[in-house]
Structures are given as structure tokens and as C-alpha cells.
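Progress narrative, work stream C.
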Amino acid sequence: MSNTEFNPATQSLLPEELDSRHVEEKSHYEDLFQKRIAEAVNKKRIKKEVKKERDELDDRHEKEKSKLLFSENDEIILDKLSLVDKESIPSAEATVVEEKKENQPNGKEESAQVETSKLSKTAKRRLKKEQEEKERKNRIKAAIDEENEKFFRGELTPQAIEKEQLNNLLKQNGLKRKSVPSDGDCMFSSLAHQLKSQRPKVSVEELREIAADYLLKNKNQFAAFLESDIELYCQKLVNEPIWGGQIELTALAAALETRIRVIQAESPNELFFGEENKTEKLLTIIYCRHLYASGEHYDSVDSI
């Protein structure tokens, strides 16, 4: 196969020079690997061989980086690189020039591990930076793994997230969710439930009529927020199970002279209607965007 030939001449490399050398070498080998695979008859065997050689190349590069990291002068001595065809990828031992014996204590080989205290200041900073980066990547990987596990357990679906957020918000306020049917009347049903202590017999139909009557009496205030004619809109509001929203909440808060609080998972977590009303009466309902398969929905609350 094509490979790199190392000639006897050596060179001293700084960290950025070693990085450039590795990039050049990897690019060269990758071209050769792809060519071998493309020309191979037994592609499965060749791919296996290529994987092994690619791993060996990566391993050698890591050893060279490690040796540079623990060098006292932030340099590494390697044979000069000449990209020509050869039979095998050089090993780490073939590329790293042996240290002169006089630079080694007692003429023995340099230890593979050097005490941190003997590192140069630059090497210490580089080591610290690499350790911090490794820890950061590990934290990110752990977080991603945890998020993936939660997703596959169904804990990170929009419904699950909204449910957890709403439960936390309700708990903070000493409340729990009171479900009402998801039938187009949900907002009015939730308010009727909230009004039961003040107006026990109030119905969804009555609340629709109160809202429509207020809208018609205050056309100038609301007409700009409606896509259709306000008279036609109010007819549908009274006679059809169309959903209520912020326009109806504003109208009902004013007509009933009360304050209405809507708790929701999205920010802001609380919306208030009728704040201009000088009253301690407060009706609390919940707005859900994802919790129900039918779509947007309102629920009421009870005290815990």
C-alpha cells in the first residue's frame, strides 16, 4: 500500500507544527485508504485492514502528542516526513527519535510518565486546558445521554415537559389541576368551576352570553382584534362551541368585575386579566398547549 517514508534526517516540531503534520499525514493516508477500498475485490477484508491501520495511525499521533506534552522545552524531535509509497504505516517507535543518553538520568530510558511538577509552564497550561476540555466534553456527553434516555422513556415529550412544569407551578401556589372536558367549552367550563362559590348556578351558556354582550357594548375596544365582523363573531360565540381565548377572558374579567389568572408552562408563567378591578376576587385557570392530543386547552384548579 502507499505510505509515508521517514528519512534519517530529523526535525524539531512545536505543538502547532505537529498538528499540521498530523493533518497532512491523515489526509494523505485517507486518500490511499479510499483508493484501496475502491479497487479491492474483497472489500470487507480491505475495510477491516484499513480500520486497523487507521486506528494505528491515530494511536501513533496520540503518542506523539503525549510525548510533546511532557517535553521540557515544548518540542518533539521526529524523523522528517516524506509522503511516498511504502508497505506499512510507521509505528510510534519508528517516528520518535530516541533521546540522547546523556540527557537521561543514569543513562536509563526516559519514563513514559513525567511528574507534573517537572513540566514547563506552557506544558502545564496546555495539560490543564486539555483536562478541562475533556471534562467539559464528558459533561456534555453525560447530559446528552441523560436527555436521550429521558426522551426514549417518554419523559422529554412536549406533553411530559409541560405536565411537569405545570405541576411545579401549581405546587408552588398550593394548587392542583382540575380537569374539564376538551369540547370547545373548556375555558368557560373552567371559569364556571372557579365561580361556583360565588355563582353556584352559573353555566357555560351564561358565560358565553356575558362575554358576547360585553364585546358588543365595547366594539371599539375589541373590533381591531377580530378577523371577522364583531356581530357575526358574537353570534357564533353564543350559539356554537367555538373556543374562548384572551379576548373572552378580558371581556369576562371586566363584565364580572373580577380578576382572572391564567397559569401556563411557557413564559410568562402567569397572565392576569382585569387587574384594573379593585377586588380581591381571583379566578385561576390553566392554559395547556401540548398536554392534550386535541390541542390547546384550559383546565381549572383546586386547592391542595
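Work stream C, second folded protein:
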Amino acid sequence: MASSQHLIAAVLGVALVSTGCGRKEVAEIPEPVMEAPAPVIPVSTPVAVDRLEPAVDMRPIMEQRIHFALDRSDLTPEARAILAAKVDILRSTPGVTLRIDGHADERGSDEYNLALSKRRAAEAKRFLVARGIDASRLETEGYGEEQPLDRTRSEMAWAMNRRAGFQVIGGAVSQR
């Protein structure tokens, strides 16, 4: 019996040793993949970015209205300042053409208001031409009381309607 116990102990020992000394599985490490280098893009001559200014849309200045006193076609100081700003833009953008639309409030006869609105448009054109803008770049039209901005019957509405409007009808008015 002692020899059978020794035999069992020997078999267990061999089994224990053989499982403990077994070869461990090693995780396979993939070969590193070499990526192609990024293409070299030639750099052109650098541009001085600080000197470039974004194009500015001058249309709001060009289309800003001027207003007139009751029964008047002469330019107010405010109207002259607005027109002077238009002169500067028109000088720097020779391809721009402008339409000037004269308007009147509802008070007065249709004939009187139509004539007054034409005088208002002509006065604005005269101011621009006197400052060197070619008359061929400026069109005028009078609408009398037919196109009010405000249909309310009040002093404020009538003052708003006594005006000359401006519309760019040719060329681009962006500047750098």
C-alpha cells in the first residue's frame, strides 16, 4: 500500500509539474505600419494679411434718403452731408449709376406735388454734378405723393414722405 501511495504521489507530482511548466501563450504583436509622409505643398509668396481690408458694402450709404422742409426743394445741411458721402463713393466707383426719386407728402394738388418732387430729385442731382459726378450717371424721377413711406396723416408722417430716395441701378458699390 505504501508503494501505491508513492505511485499516486509520483503521478500527481509529475502532473502538477507538467501543468505548471506549460508554455504560456504569447499575444502576437503586430508589425508597426509605416505611414507615407504627408505630401509637401509648396508655399507661395506670403501675402501681407494686415494690409487687406474686407470689401465694404456701400449700398446703405448710397441708398440713404434725404428729407426736405414743407413746400421746399432746397437742401438742408443734413441732406448736404448725406449727399457729400455719396459723392465720395461715386468718385471711387466710376461704374456706378444712381437713380434719384423725388417724393412729396399728400398736402397740395397732384400737379403741384409732382412738380415739387421732380425739383427735389433735380436739386439732389445738381449737388452731385456740381461736385464732379458725371450727369450721365444720374437719373431722376418725380413721383409726387404717390409713394408715401407712411400713410398716417400726421406731421411726422408727412415729414418722412417729403424726401428724395436713391437707388443704385448699375455697377458695384463695394470698396476696399
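The beta strands are 56-57, 66-67, 97-102, 138-142, 163-170, 174-175. No further action is required on this item.
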